[in-house]
Amino acid sequence: MLGFRKSVSALLAPALLVVLSLGIAGGHVALSVSLKDILPNIPYVLTLLALLLGLWFKRERVIFSALPLGFANLAMLNAWPQVPASGPMWQIAYPALCLFLPVYLLSVAFFRDCGLLSLSGLVRVLWLFLPFAAVLVAVDDAVSVEAQAQMAAALHFRPFSTDLDFWSHLPQPAILLFGGATLILCGRFIFYPTPMEGAMLGTMASAWAALHHVGDGVMASLLLSTALLLLIVAVVQDAYHMAFLDELTGLPARRAMNTQLGRLGKRFSVAMVDVDHFKKFNDAYGHDVGDQVLQMVAMRMARVTGGGRAFRYGGEEFAVLFPGKDVEAAKEHLEALRQAIADSSFALRAEGRPETAPKGRNKPGSGKKTKTVSVTVSMGVAGQVEGIPDPDDVLKAADKALYKAKENGRNRLVSDRPTI
């Protein structure tokens, strides 16, 4: 469930922005005259913003994705304001951009953020600017007409029937490259459903649509603005995740909980949850297994009923907020959660068992038996009462109740009241 929510969240913003932009480009949504006047300049502003955010948060993929999109807007507005056109800028530069952009954006999707001043960063800068320099040389008047004609023919090579590209100015190889790159990014998003991967997928689709709308007024600028905005949104989402989400479990972190506490009304309950004997478990089986146990507990806690919101408080401690519910109402749902965790079993990797499953692992007698263990949690809950306006006092009472639960034998739920 957590993985599904994560995927939907990461893909929602790119999907909505791309669909809206395509609706505008297709004439289904009207633009005001004033917006049409400023739209050609918006990609430059968004490029600068993306560069600043990329530098600030050390996201080189954003920087290297934004730069060619800004250059593409400059070329689309000035080199090909109306199409079809003639001359080497149309016959060579446009198809070269169409071929380069999907390959380049796909390569950027696999970049690792390792610093602009590193050797890898220098290679990436050359990978961005050398193709642009090569195109400028190719369209120069010093190049013979025959050589330019040969380059144009190569760039417009048709391996398949004209039915594949009759509807677009993009040459067939570019259409195939965009299609293949989009499929690869879809597969990558399935394995890594993060906001940045979703943004890279949306950026590829938007760049494809922008090149298709060459010469179509401000529509190309609109679609390139969408691509740049996707990158910016991804950086902001990543920053939010780092600040408010726990990386290990995917649950909201303690900072997010503190923010929620300040927004609760006069009626709420808070539960503190602690994994029983976690230190002994961690020492016996290793930190990797301990992390997996925390992930399993987090998965169960994310399914808490009654409108509860689960948080990773720190270490092996979790918390659950119940807005609008008193202690008695929350206890029913907490008891069901405690029992669900206790009824779950966790499979441990047997000693000497390989990391990857051997062939024939399901055959009788193959491999070693896997040991399963159970995990339990102790819970303490407290609720807001009249005369106690500070949520921190409720949190302290819940923490006090948690220690009572541990002192009384663990794997149980204890309630307490804040001190007036």
Descriptive report:
The protein is α+β, with helices and mostly antiparallel strands. It contains 15 helices and 7 strands. It has helices at residues 2-25, 33-38, 42-56, 60-78, 88-109, 119-138, 145-155, 172-191, 195-212, 219-244, 254-261, 278-285, 287-301, 327-343, 391-407; strands at 268-275, 309-314, 317-323, 345-348, 371-374, 377-383, 413-416. A 5-stranded mixed β-sheet has the order 2-3-1-6-7, sandwiched between helices. It has a two-stranded antiparallel sheet with strand order 4-5. Residues 350-358 and 360-367 have low confidence and may be disordered.
Using brief descriptors, characterize the structure shown.
420 residues, alpha+beta, Alpha-Beta Plaits, five-stranded mixed sheet, two-stranded antiparallel ribbon, 15 helices
Summarize the structure.
By secondary structure, the protein is α+β, with helices and mostly antiparallel strands. The two termini are about 40 Å apart. The longest helix is centred in the middle third of the chain and has 26 residues, at about 220-245.
Topology:
Elements (H helix, E strand, L loop, with lengths): L1 H24 L7 H6 L3 H15 L3 H19 L9 H22 L9 H20 L6 H11 L16 H20 L3 H18 L6 H26 L9 H8 L6 E8 L2 H8 L1 H15 L7 E6 L2 E7 L3 H17 L1 E4 L22 E4 L2 E7 L7 H17 L5 E4 L4
Parallel strand pairs: 6-7
Antiparallel strand pairs: 1-3, 1-6, 2-3, 4-5
Helix pairs in contact: 1-9, 1-10, 3-4, 3-10, 4-5, 4-10, 5-6, 5-7, 5-8, 5-9, 8-9, 9-10, 12-13
